[in-house]
Every structure is written in structure tokens, then in C-alpha cells.
Amino acid sequence: MASRSRSIAREELLRIIGICENIEKSGLDPFTVDVKALLVRLRRILETQKSLETVLLDAETLYKVALIIALQHKWLRDRAASLFVDAQLITVKILSADLKTLAACLTSSWNPIVFGEQLTKGMLKDGLDYFLSLPTRASKTMDSSHDIGQDDGLVDNVVNLFYQDTVLEDEVRRLHCEMLETVGDGGRLDYWRFIEREGLARRAQRAYVVSFIVSEGLAEMQRNPLTGEIYLIPYSGKIERKNVVSLPISLGAGKNG
Amino acid sequence: MGEQQPEQSQAKRRLSTAIAMLLFSSHRLPGVRGYELRRRLGKNYLKVIETLNHRLEPLGLKVKILFEAGSDGGSPEDYDRARYFITLSEPLSLSEIVAAGWRIDELAVLAASLALLFSRGGKAPSRDIIEVLEAKLPRWRVEASIERFIRRGYLFKDEDGVLHVGWRAIAEVGQKELVRAVAEAGTTQADQPATGTSSGESSSPPG
Q1: Global pTM exceeds 0.80
Q2: How far is B41 from chain A (nearest CA, A)?
């Protein structure tokens, strides 16, 4: 009999905790809970059940009721701050208003934040400097990064590419014409020789533009897997590709790398 | 005159630093915290912000300070922990916002969601909000818009599926103005920007 009444008390306390948690989580009106009646019930349970489990559960319930009282305080403060506009009224108004009116309501109370998201030349340079300063995982990679760092003005040239006034399209057109003019026997030319035609300082920039020419379909790239040689096959017009693959080329490694 | 030159250039440099910090963000959230400004601009950073505010005023911009929940700007620590943004000082008109690429139905979803959340103490189960909005728009569109506004920081959804007012809505949207505008909807003419100041837990720098 005692265990049955203990289990009833436990269930009742758990139910009260459940109600309090539901109100706390869902943001419902905390005044829907009769705090006074709950406290009376808690006192009655505590008077009849003295087991440790019930006392602990009772304490937890009391804590949850205290949270509800805090929510009631916040609820009142919020309502006073918003000049007490009933949620029901707002719902009815939303249902009766058309979309344009609702949108206008927002615009009349909206001061958007102004901020910029832009990659600047300085940020790009910082990023590259940081990347080059990172410890390498293999000696080969270390040599490559060393080569890039040693290459006179290579990093600056790549950075300048994002900053220059010349439109990239013009540069693409210029190099494509150059490719067509210098194409050798078999309609192809050596990739490394081509990108180094204007010296090592412009190598990265030319490689960058060549990647656009190939991506656009104005030239094809051929790579001999045995010798590692890479050839460019320029076309006068764009070609359609059925299969597209990416071909990463490390400039630091050079043609022999 | 010659002695004032370095001071003037220092003040100018501080203003440039302040505006760069406030406008350009390298992380997800725009704006900066007060302690970040203090570190770069010195202990009188609020004076710099005040001067910047005067400079921004003719351009239709202002510095907005968003205090953390529970603080009201009563102590210097509140200002250190607050987040500082640059916002438009006056709301845009509906046609201007639409011209900027926003859809009317998206704006309506945001207006209705925020108005409902504000009127219910800042949070409500998402199904309640969707139920109301479903009366006006297809459910998929409502859900897609709400997801988009969650990503942009205007709304926040916890693991229990309860929607909250997001940090960005607190920073950008005047709670009282929006609730009042929705409550008065139908009696006022659409597409007329109000000229009231924004409310919420924000303020201008102290004089």
C-alpha cells in the first residue's frame, strides 16, 4: 500500500515536472500554470511521503516551479515593454493581411546591418605568406615551397593578378592568339616552354591564364604519364567536351618535378 | 598648429581603424565586440565610436550597439561585451528592398514570424509559426524561407524545434515598431517607411 502511494506521488511529481518543462521549452503563456495549487500539492506530497527519492523529486519539482515563476516575471516584463499586444491579435492580423502589407510592416521597422565581405589584396597576400610559412609534411613538398618562395616576385605576381586593371578576358584572348601563332608540328606545343616564354617572373600568371583557356575549351591538354610531359593543343574555336577531368600542376616542382 | 598635426592624424587613423573593423568582417558574424575595439583603439574607444557616429550620420548610417541579454549599458563592462554594428539609420522603402533582390513573400514570412515570436516572448514552436503562415503560402515555401532566415541569423531553431528570435533580428528589427505595424496592419498604407528609431536592447554610444 505504501509503495503504491509512493509510486502515485512519484508519477504526479514527474507529471508536474513535465508540464513545467513543456512551458519552459515551447514558450507558452506561463500563467496557464496555477503555481499556488502546485505548491499546495507539493507540500501535501512531502508531508505524506518521506522517502529519499520522493524528497529529491519534490526538490526538483520545486526548482521547476521556481523557473515557471521566473518565466511569469519575464512574460510580464516583455508584455509591458511591447505595450501588451496580444499574440492572438497578431495572429488574426497576420491572417487577414496580404503579403505586401506584411512585407511593408517589416520594412518600416528594419535597419539592415551594413558590412562588407571582400577578399582584399592584403588578405590574399597574408594567406599566401601564412601558407608558405606552414611546416611541410615531406621534404619534397618542402623543396617545392622553397622554390616558390625563392622565385623572384612569384607570389606578388599571383597577387597582382587579382588586383590588376587588365581584364582577364583580354589576357585569355592574348595568350590564346599566341598559342595559335606558336603552335608547332603536330598542332601542339610544350606546356612548360609556353608558360615560361616571358620569363620565370610571369610563369605563374601565364599558367593561371592558360588554365582558363583550357577550361573554356579553346585548347586541350595532353599529358604523357610515362615521361610527365605536358602539351597544349590550341583550337581556333571552342570545343565541346564529353569528359572533363582536372589536372593539378605544381609550378614549384617545375617541369622535372 | 604644428603640434596638433600628429594628434589629428592619430584621430583620423583611429577613425579609419574603427570603420574598417566595423565594416569588414573576416568571420561569420558582422560587427565587433567592445573589447576588440578597446584593444585596437584604446580605452577611449567609445569616444571614437561617437565621433564616427557623427561622421556617418549625413550618410544615412549609424553605429548600433547590441548589449548582451541581461545588460543595459549601465557599466563599462556592458559596453565591452556588447557587439557593435553599422546599420542604416532610416528604414528602406519596400520598393527599395525589393529592388535589392528580396522577394515580397520572403519578407512577409520574416515579418509574420518575427511578429508572432515577439508577441509570444521571443520563442514559439516552429509548427505553430508554420501553421499560421501556411494559410497564406505553400508549406514548402514557408519552410524554405524559414530555413533561409535561420541560416542568415534572423531566426534560430533549437533541438526541440522551437523557433527563437535570432541575433540579427534583434540587431536590425525594431521589436515595438514591427509589432505595432502588424497590429495596425490594414489601417496604414503600405510601402511607407516609418521614421521612428529602433528599439530593443540597443543604444547609441554615451555622450
Answers
A1: no
A2: 19
Q: Which of A62-71, A134-143, B20-29 has the highest mean pLDDT?
A: A62-71
Check whether residue A47 and residue A80 sit in a common domain: yes
Q: Given CB atoms, is B1 within the 8 Å cutoff of chain A?
A: no
The answer to whether the Cα torsion of B18, B23, B26, B28 is positive or negative is positive
Pair (A211, A136) in one structural domain: no
Please tell me the least confidently modeled range out of A113-122, A150-159, B40-49.
A150-159
Q: Where are the alpha helices (DSSP H) in A183-216?
A: 191-195, 203-216
Measured between beta carbons, the chain A residues lying within 8 angstroms of B168 are 113
Q: pLDDT confidence of B144, banded at 50, 70, 90?
A: very high
Give the DSSP H/E element, type plus range, for residue B156: strand B155-157
In this structure, is residue A247 part of a structural domain? no
DSSP one-letter string for A211-242: HHHHHHTSEEEEE-TTT--EEEEE-SS----S
The answer to whether ipTM exceeds 0.90 is no
In angstroms and rounded to an integer, the radius of gyration of the C-alpha atoms of chain B is 19
Q: Which domain holds residue A129?
A: 120-151
Taking the C-alpha atoms of residue A206 and residue A196, their distance in angstroms, rounded to an integer, is 8
